[in-house]
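Hi everyone, sorry if this is the wrong subforum. Our group has a chain we'd like a structural model of before ordering constructs, and none of us has done structure prediction before. Sequence below.
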Amino acid sequence: MFGRKYTFESKTTRLRRLLLSGVFLACLTIALLVSFIVYIPIYAKMQKGRADGAFYQKSPDAIAVFTGDKGRIAYAMDLLKKNPTSKLFISGVHTANSVQTLINKQSNDSAAPEINEPGVQVDLDYESKNTFENVRETVSYLKANPEIQQVLIISSDYHIMRIKLIISHFLSDSKQQFYFDSVPNTYTTWKDTKKLLKEAMKIVRTFIQLKIFREDIVLED
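Answer:
Right subforum, don't worry. Here is the predicted structure as tokens:
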């Protein structure tokens, strides 16, 4: 006698509900994307803090800098000046460059004399063309120098998350300890912001390739 009552939506009400749900999901997606993009340089700063703590009173066995943007090599050379017992590995060097030409072009004037001192070891990688190859050649370098246990990776702040993602995937069982330091960007210009947006897409793509499709090689444009 007292059966269930059913409320039927009109087409207008249903369309309004679907529209509101779509707007909510779109806003939520945009908020998550913006939060992720903002977090990328924050993550690099956190990794820098970890590296500063690890090497507060000692030097890394090796400093590996991945080329590709301004300031990276100069920063690595400044660190080498402060840590002359560390080996320096520069990955992704143009074939026209040598150690001396890089010192002349990239180092601060105050760092150049120390880098030229006897006993300071600087090795160049001419093979790498992308981040995966940077990691691959760094691994080869470490295999050729098994005494190296603690490695400090240098790149731009927007690049650190993807480097660590690749290293963590392929070197999860490595005996070496990896730390990360970076050259910061202000992101006050569209050029720098565009780099960050492009890198965010690369991080997502790399995560899908490594964690979902389990690809062995990361290809980049």
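For your construct planning: The chain has a mean pLDDT of 88. The longest helix spans residues 11-54.
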